[in-house]
């Protein structure tokens, strides 16, 4: 059974940091690229960051999070991470993890991140 389980979301104040985790099971994790997406209320889901299957090479980031967010993965633990710093209220959203390989794609259920004073 394929599973992607996000965790680590919560309520933080502006300027604080948070790290999200995405735990994978039921498929060969190190064959899949990982992307983090987010969806704010009333807005479309947007790509936040991406990392290749082996974690090497270029990582991609949305302009809105460059310099503040860092994507990484630990293939020995079948887990991906999104380190978020200098959080802003506009970062408030449900954050989703996606695993991609060719036309195969899996989604997690999402974790809520709320940035508010």
Polypeptide structure, described:
This protein has no helices and 11 strands. It is mainly beta and 117 residues long. The strands form 2 sheets. Strands 2, 4, 5, 6, 9, 10 and 11 form a 7-stranded mixed beta sheet that branches. A 4-stranded antiparallel beta sheet has the order 1-3-8-7, with no helix packed on it.
Short description:
0% of the residues lie in helices and 52% in strands. The chain has 117 residues and is mostly beta strands.
Features:
four-stranded antiparallel β-sheet, 117 residues, mainly beta
Give the arrangement of secondary structure elements:
Layout: E1 3-7, E2 10-12, E3 18-25, E4 33-39, E5 46-51, E6 60-61, E7 69-74, E8 79-84, E9 93-101, E10 104-107, E11 111-115
Parallel strand pairs: 2-11
Antiparallel strand pairs: 1-3, 3-8, 4-5, 4-9, 5-6, 7-8, 9-10, 9-11
Identify low-pLDDT runs.
none
**How many separate helices?**
0
Q: Overall pLDDT, averaged? A: 96
* Biggest pleated sheet: 7 strands, mixed
Distance between the termini: 40 Å
User: What percentage of amino acids are in beta strands?
Assistant: over 45%
What structural class is derived from the secondary structure elements?
A: mainly beta
Helix content: under 10%
**Shape annotation:** globular
E-strand count: 11
Rg (CA only): 13 Å
Query: Could you state the order of secondary-structure elements as H and E?
Result: EEEEEEEEEEE
């Amino acid at each position: 059974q394929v599973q992607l389980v996000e965790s680590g979301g919560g309520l933080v104040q502006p300027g604080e940091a948070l790290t999200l985790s995405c735990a994978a099971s039921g498929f060969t994790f190190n064959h899949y690229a990982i992307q983090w997406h987010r969806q704010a209320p009333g807005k479309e889901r947007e790509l936040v960051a991406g990392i290749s299957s082996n974690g090497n090479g270029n990582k991609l980031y949305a302009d809105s999070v460059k310099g503040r967010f860092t994507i990484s993965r630990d293939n020995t633990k079948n887990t991906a991470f999104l380190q978020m710093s200098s959080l802003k209220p506009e970062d408030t959203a449900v954050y989703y993890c996606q695993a991609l390989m060719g036309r195969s794609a899996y989604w997690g259920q999402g974790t809520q991140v709320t940035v508010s004073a």
